[in-house]
Every structure is written in C-alpha cells, then in structure tokens.
Amino acid sequence: xxxxxxxxxxxxxxxxxxxxxxxxxxxxxxxxxxxxxxxxxxxxxxxxxxxxxxxxxxxxxxxxxxxxxxxxxxxxxxxxxxxxxxxxxxxxxxxxxxxxxxxxxxxxxxxxxxxxxxxxxxxxxxxxxxxxxxxxxxxxxxxxxxxxxxxxx
Length: 153
Prior knowledge:
Layout: E1 7-9, E2 14-16, E3 21-22, E4 27-30, E5 44-46, E6 51-52, E7 57-60, E8 64-66, E9 71-72, E10 77-79, E11 102-104, E12 109-110, E13 115-116, E14 121-122, E15 127-128, E16 133-134, E17 143-146, E18 149-151
Parallel strand pairs: 1-4, 2-5, 3-6, 4-7, 5-8, 7-10, 8-11, 9-12, 10-13, 11-14, 12-15, 13-16, 15-17
Antiparallel strand pairs: 17-18
C-alpha cells in the first residue's frame, strides 16, 4: 500500500492478496468509522496481483469482492452502500439505503473515474471506459462505457 493513504480503517475485515498494489491517496475502508465493531472477518477482499490506481476509494459496509488481476485507473470509486431521499424532511446523509454486495471479476479493467454502485456484479475480463457509472451487472468479457454504463461489445 502506497503512502500517504487518504483513509484506512476496518483493517481487520480487509483481505488484500499477494503482489497487489494500492496507489497513493487511496481510501480503503470497511464500516462507517474507525474502531466500529464489524460483523464479518472479510467484508472487503482484493485479489492477487491487483492494481488500485491513485486517488481511488473502496468503501465497504457489507461485502465487496475484487478478483485477481483487476486493474483500476486513478480515481475509481466502488461502494456497496448509498443514501436515499425517501423522507424529504430528513437530511439525505441520515437516510441509508440497504447495502448490496459488489463483485468485480478477475482480469477486469476499470479506467479513470469509474464509479461502481451497490448491488453490481462485473464479470470476468470486463473493460469499463473512463468516467463510466456502473449501475447494473456487466457480463464476462464485455466492454462498457457511459453514465450509466452500457455494453458496447
């Protein structure tokens, strides 16, 4: 893990595989705040030989699994949680949507600025274009881009 990190907490529930590099200024977190009691031993798993580009953020509250040989460009954001605005009388930050697992398959590439939203499964060998927002599952071997991301080939 390169330094300086932006944020690192929930380390007891983070598993990082062999020969994986996490670039500088990355935020890798499990839970809401440092010192929080976590409900599982592995809530964030990053496989072997991955590269997480500088300035990227991975925020897990439930489960994020990143397969082997996955590459992130700079400033990629992956999360398994979000907020809602179901009650307009409350601040959005106090309205949590249910967490949903995220999986990114082996040998995938997420270019600069990609956002992966809760509940998404990205298959193996997928390429996602720069600044795309992945809001639904992507099958093995496809190329996708856009906001929201759509399959191009």
